[in-house]
Amino acid sequence: MKPDIYLPVIVAKNTLERGAVISPSDIELKKRNISSSRAGVITNPDEVVGLTVKRRIRDLQPISPAQLDQPIMVDRGQRVVMIAEQDGIEARTMGEAMKKGRKGDMIKVKNESSQRVVSAVVDNMGVVRMLYAPGQ
């Protein structure tokens, strides 16, 4: 028999639907018995704010890492800022995302001026970093 362990954990204030981006007003800390929790628990609100809900979370249900994902930061067809950096010099241009992506995802982006398709890593909302500088 496991002992009961109670900790303040992050729970949903209201039902959160799939695809919702969590804001501070969506969550609260509530003391819960975590001794039987297999999915893990989150105790720091900063770990969930800004993340996307993978599947519905009922009101007052503890939120686990498995229920969350990084938000989509670039949509397919979206006009994005392309950044290339080399030896401390940064160049920026505009491009079109060929697929959607979350922070850290590698996606293909078409450079608007050269029409070249290059690989880039999603860095922020509407911003990608090219893996290499053009012309290398």
Automatic annotation (TrEMBL):
<keyword id="KW-0282">Flagellum</keyword>
<dbReference type="GO" id="GO:0042597">
    <property type="term" value="C:periplasmic space"/>
</dbReference>
<protein>
    <recommendedName>
        <fullName>Flagella basal body P-ring formation protein FlgA</fullName>
    </recommendedName>
</protein>
<dbReference type="Pfam" id="PF13144">
    <property type="entry name" value="ChapFlgA"/>
</dbReference>
<keyword id="KW-0732">Signal</keyword>
<comment type="similarity">
    <text>Belongs to the FlgA family.</text>
</comment>
<keyword id="KW-0574">Periplasm</keyword>
<comment type="function">
    <text>Involved in the assembly process of the P-ring formation. It may associate with FlgF on the rod constituting a structure essential for the P-ring assembly or may act as a modulator protein for the P-ring assembly.</text>
</comment>
<keyword id="KW-1005">Bacterial flagellum biogenesis</keyword>
<dbReference type="InterPro" id="IPR013974">
    <property type="entry name" value="SAF"/>
</dbReference>
<dbReference type="GO" id="GO:0044780">
    <property type="term" value="P:bacterial-type flagellum assembly"/>
</dbReference>
<keyword id="KW-0966">Cell projection</keyword>
<feature type="domain" description="SAF">
    <location>
        <begin position="7"/>
        <end position="69"/>
    </location>
</feature>
<dbReference type="InterPro" id="IPR017585">
    <property type="entry name" value="SAF_FlgA"/>
</dbReference>
<dbReference type="InterPro" id="IPR039246">
    <property type="entry name" value="Flagellar_FlgA"/>
</dbReference>
<keyword id="KW-0969">Cilium</keyword>
